[in-house]
Predict the structure.
Amino acid sequence: MDVEDVLRMDRWPHILCPGCGNGTILNVLARELAERFENGDLDPDKTVLVSGIGCSSRLPGYFRLDSLHTTHGRPLAFATGLKTANPDLEVIVITGDGDAAAIGGNHLIHAARRNLDVTVICANNYIYGMTGGQVSPTTPEGDVSTTTPYGNPEPPFDLCELVMGAGAPHVERWTTAHPVQLKAAIGRALDREGFSFIDVLSQCPTNYGRRNGFRDAREMVEWLRENTSTRDEEGKIRIGILRDEEREPFHARIRKVLEKAGGDGD
Amino acid sequence: MRDENGKVEFLQGNEACAEGAIAAGCRFFAGYPITPSTEIAERMSARLPEVGGVYVQMEDEIASLAAVIGASWAGVKAMTATSGPGFSLMQEHMGYAVMTETPCVVVNIQRGGPSTGQPTKASQGDVMQARWGSHGDYEVVALSPYDVQEMFDLTVECFNWAETLRVPAVLLADEVVGHMRERVVLREDVETVDRELPPEGEEVERPFPLEPDDLVPPMPVFGRGHRVHVTGLTHDERGYPCTDDPEVHRKLVRRLCNKVRKRAGEIHESVGYDFIERDSDIALVAYGGCARTVLEAAEEAGVTMFRPKVIHPFDEGLVRRLLDGYEVLVVEMNLGQYYEMVKMALDPDCVHLLGYPGGYPPTPERVVEEVERLGG
Amino acid sequence: MRIKEEFCKGCFLCVWVCPVDALDESDRRNEKGYRLPEQVGRCTGCRQCEMICPDVAIEVVEADEG
């Protein structure tokens, strides 16, 4: 199966800016899915993409799969209904730093706590790109945005620490400068049962890079490659597999409730 | 105990509502506790697992309706229950359910408002909100039960209309009916409607047609190979975001409204209403928990009585046919909401209001007093 | 590699990622006005350009496929 068989090529070229990190995520996700559909590992008819609002949330509309483009911050809540009503569905949530950690923060921690069986790809480009470049909960302190013209006075979240604290069993961080590793991480997340969270450090050249000293997408991915490390290194952002444990997924817990009540049909 | 239609029980209104949902085929409930609706969640948490359904207590009301919509797209009939403050939180997703044509049921056991208000007392303060609470142009179905049997029956109707029209249907109840206990027949002959589905395995090219202007398209639920993109953005017939074409938006929004609006008469006829005609110049109008005392007052004063069960969509033609020529007194537990709708359909000089917030319906004596003041 | 010119937005991430500098900016533009990349060296088939391209606009074609 070609990557183009998974995508709605009738909508090409897509609306993302030149050099957008979300585009790399789209590309890598499409290739991983195409492979799995090809080798029978995943059924495209049972694979559902769910997103919120933001540039990365536009991705599901470009895939030839069932997809639910929901409201800002809430994809995980919709996904909770989808997955518990039909556990046969493979649910992938595509969200962003604002969608997941600002307005969606509550749903993020509860989905992680419940261990909802979803793969969450969080396109973390440190900014609210879609709306023109306002500060987000992951924008580094001191950065300029359209709502922090004097520099961001707030400290940012470490999204991985946040979801690990909430109980997520499988957490990884990669960047769009590492497409090969990112694709593999998506594969691992799809293999795992339970809440898999991938923090994808990404570039928004148009609404973040431009205002913070980066001339183009290349300079941004260069920065991502140079300032991240798969080892604990001073001054570098830790990327890689941060946690990989096994915990009972939510739909299995629900199933046990049905068994106790006698409604499981067995 | 049984009668010829089913098991007879003595239940609280909220409990009957839960049973109605299960009888209608509901197999998913996501909710958040809020007085005076919590008993619905509690009963669903016990009963749904017994019938193979799923109960999830979500982290807030916003997530609750989101999960309900998600479950509906997984192909399962789904419901949530709340009261005023929670209903306010749910408004964004009411609009999302409308825009995505997602069948779902939202129960609102109205309590004193605004804001935290009177958590343990009744009101009918959300009548307008049920229809106008979300942003944009849209229509929903909202039904108002006045006794425990209707808490069962109208919940079934909500599910059926939600499935028929692919809209959110609101059970607009109140604390009086939600918390009272009465004899109820848990009918087993319940007629249920299921959403129309496209043939399984077929990729659906045009899941959201723009014409005809009152069409309800089959629902391409997930997991059946339909490969549909569902979005809250204005979308074209293929379901793709299409926000730059005014014609597409116009046609889409018109269809979303017309599919309900054009069937207003059908819905009122099917769900029914009470109209007790008496030889008088005055007609009383009341609905829900408030109608119980007003019905008594109407009998006492010898005046005509109209009790709608369908609050939305409003059927102007029906109201005119029934009430033209009367001095109409609308009695409701708010400062005038259904009253405004009736006033728009009739000669406004002939429509009067006994607006009665405070937590309880007015006594029959109080209503009769008002009728006499009107000259009845 | 083959570039689908009508989809390229001239971001040159492919140029950046290529470990053997087989790609570079060209002087040519597509119909939208975006500058296009071109192959200037021998491709090792690592496919990183294929994967990083935000527009899925570059494809590695094996030599023996002609």
Summary: The first strand of chain A starts at residue 47 and ends at 51.
